[in-house]
Amino acid sequence: MTVSDSGPYVNGGAESSTLPTDDGDIYVCQDGPRDAPALLLIHGSASSARSWDPLVPLLTGCHRVIRIDLLGHGRSAKPDDRSYATPEQARRVGMALDLVGVKHAIVVGHSSGGVIATALAEQRPDLVTALALINTGPSMDAFIAPAESAAITPSQWPPTDEQLRQFASTGFSRAGYQVPQELLGEMRAMTYHTLTATMQATREYLEQRPLPDRLTVLGKPLLVIFGEDDRRWRSSSAADYRAVPGARIELLPGLGHSPILEDPPRTATPLLAFTAVHATEAD
């Protein structure tokens, strides 16, 4: 394991690590006290651990916050000869937590990151103590198909900033939202294969079985946060999660698909209330 900063992290400094695996290097970032309950944040498709940057400072007061760049994204490896199926991505996340010494964690996923969080809980129920899904569609029935003009073809790769902004525009509640430049850069650093393969993997996983059905069987505490003005997944579909016993649903008016970027404090409020109840089981 290669750590980018030197010296011990006794009580909360940021630490970036590159974890070698058989599928390629996985980038991990940790913030907050190392002896606090673990909170894992999983980003969505065409994104990276940096999408959580505005939210992390609001969480580190009482959590060991761990972020991962999924294989094919951000600062992790982007091989074209590995599977990007959702269960495989979840397996790699579990492996990364093992390597950094986490035995129990509350897992938070944004968008398709919530799908991977669910798969991780299916594979490693001992590891996942509770789940929080942020703007994660419960099934493909909730998906809002993008306009054809937003599509990017292989011949257009790597895309321009304008093409990326158009592609990402439905990720926010209002037109003209300025996507952070570093996120555009990391999207462009993906290969066309990793972009399309990861998005297809999410579709296939949801088509196999809706998330509420999977989560009901798991019996894990569940929080669902949804920006009401989501332009990728119908926010009314959040009600589908009520099929999960004890699920808590929080709708955020005026916010879209990415409340973690659009309004971090409003996103953190229900998340912290949820983790305060279940954090004693995470380490």
Account of the protein in words:
The chain has 283 residues and is α/β, with parallel strands linked by helices. The protein has one domain (2-281): Rossmann fold, CATH 3.40.50. The chain is built from eight helices and nine strands. The chain has helices spanning 86-99, 112-123, 161-168, 181-189, 192-208, 211-218, 259-262, 264-278, and strands spanning 2-3, 15-19, 26-31, 38-42, 64-69, 105-110, 128-134, 222-227, 248-252. It has a nine-stranded mixed sheet with strand order 1-2-3-5-4-6-7-8-9, sandwiched between helices. Strand 6, helix 2 and strand 7 (128-134) form a beta-alpha-beta unit. Helix 2 runs parallel beside helix 6 (211-218). It is globular and about 50 Å long. The two termini are 21 Å apart.
